[in-house]
Amino acid sequence: MIIRNMPNEEYHAHNSISKSGLDLVARSPAHYRYQEKREPSRAMVIGSAIHAAILEPEVFASKYMLLRDVKDRRASEYKHAVAVYGEEFVLTGKESDYVAGMQESVRASRSIMTMLEKDGDAELSVFTKDPVTGVEVRCRFDWLTKCGIPLDLKKTQDARPDAFGRSVYNYRYHVQEAFYRDVWNWETGESLDRMRFAAIEERMPHATMVYKLDDEALNEGRRLYREALNLYAECLER
Hints:
The protein has helices spanning 8-13, 19-27, 29-33, 42-55, 57-63, 76-85, 93-107, 110-116, 161-171, 173-188, 215-237, and strands spanning 2-3, 65-66, 90-91, 120-129, 136-145, 150-156, 196-201, 208-211. With 238 residues, the chain is an alpha/beta fold. The chain is globular. The chain starts with a strand and ends with a helix. The mean pLDDT is 92.
């Protein structure tokens, strides 16, 4: 099942396991079973705003309030805006500057804009079953072109190759690519091109780099998600 424009809350509430869920299972099944519901942090709020600004600019313009002259979230103007728009959709001056700067950096990247200018879908949700275990799984593409090129945006503090390589390992981006591409194949029978990771620095000058992972990283990512998925299936049975 492929769903466009699915609300974020509905996607996360679905009774299936995602890549982030498999990350917890890999740590231990107990970490997945007893995970606490987290309220959105400001870093998560800014990350969502960046995704909207870059991938869905019309949604960003209609849903977000940018308080460029407000420096403190204790200000009455901020509190009033939150009452109208919701805390997740109100950005202070510095937060607004971060999002605007990252948006401009992406617009200056020819390689990223070439993908975004192709016909495609933002926040595309995919649900299917793992053919090995029968477990329900899901993934959500930041951007997927009609010609089968996935693009994933990553907010980072350092977009240089060595630093981003550490992020790939720490946040298991290689697991993400392998899992997402396989989930798409299980549901559609089609193969996707290599995932492009756009690493965008949060702070000025908002340097942006685009990376593709190599075969070794992808194979290791597939091994890791399969190990976690098999363990999850065993836990469900028991």
